[in-house]
Write a structure and sequence with these properties.
With 238 residues, the chain is of the alpha/beta class. It is 44% helix and 14% strand. It has helices spanning 6-19, 26-40, 80-96, 113-127, 156-172, 192-196, 212-217, 222-237, and strands at residues 57-62, 101-105, 131-135, 147-152, 178-184, 201-205. The protein has a six-stranded mixed β-sheet, sandwiched between helices. Helix 5 (156-172) packs across helix 8 (222-237). The longest helix has 17 residues, at 80-96.
Length: 238
């Protein structure tokens, strides 16, 4: 149907009145045309296409989730547990949109570090996760900077997962310092998560919370959510 502007509509009505066209209901016709035009311009609702499940499962674990342990605090005054807890749940939703099932573990039982790591290791196994990550951020001197990913020294699959996450961050934040992937053994502090999980696992250390510039940059948590999502997808696609 022909489109008519408001100005043209008024002009045609004036013509109709000037020539006294009898029997020609021009105003009704034009109103119908304008209503049809407005209806055509209404936005249509997007059609949601179901995502085919990949059959893959990931345990998204939030570091420092046992009672009384909130981890380090960044220069904004936000603890590791609080910061990464928000990322974990958003990451879970993003992975779901790619057909990857996930479960967030943001509370660990256990009175001490060792018992908490044994507990989370059991939970990850019960969930039958294909891979597991534990979310952290680093803390040291104000000048310390960069990102790194930690994996169990004897697990080639964990190394591949760490490398996939590292590459995703390297692509997303080329201006940040790449500290590489690092293998851990039982003698290394904080390696309990890596040794207790039955599946390929990685500890993420995407920035230094003690570095003001990095903390400000990563206030936008979608940056890390996108990095983790891409790294995980690429790992499963390899």
């Amino acid at each position: 149907m022909m489109r008519v502007s408001d100005k043209q509509y008024k002009q045609l009505l004036d013509i109709q009145k000037a020539f006294e066209w009898e029997g020609v209901k021009l105003d009704s016709l034009l109103k119908e045309m304008k209503e049809q035009e407005e209806e055509d311009e209404q936005p249509t609702e997007p059609i949601e296409v179901p995502v085919e499940p990949t059959g893959k499962k990931i345990a998204i674990c939030v570091g420092h989730s046992r009672s009384g342990d909130n981890g380090a605090v960044n220069t904004d005054g936000v603890s590791e547990h609080t910061y990464n807890g928000q990322i974990a749940h958003n990451l879970s939703q993003k992975l779901s949109s790619h057909g990857i099932e996930s479960k967030v573990f943001d509370y660990y039982e256990g009175s001490g570090y060792g018992s908490a790591m044994s507990w989370i290791g059991d939970q990850v196994k019960k969930y039958d996760a294909d891979i597991a990550i534990e979310l952290h951020f680093n803390s040291a001197s104000p000048s310390a900077a960069g990102y790194e990913y930690l994996y169990w020294h004897s697990s080639s699959s964990s190394k591949a997962l760490a490398d996939s996450l590292l590459k995703a961050q390297e692509e997303k934040t080329p201006q940040m310092k790449n500290r590489g992937i690092k293998s851990k053994t039982s003698s290394d502090r904080g390696s309990g998560f890596l040794s207790k999980t039955h599946c390929p696992s990685v500890i993420t250390e995407p920035y230094f919370g003690s570095n003001k510039e990095e903390t400000i940059y990563y206030r936008d948590k979608t940056i890390l959510e996108d990095i983790y999502t891409k790294g995980i997808i690429n790992y499963f696609a390899r």
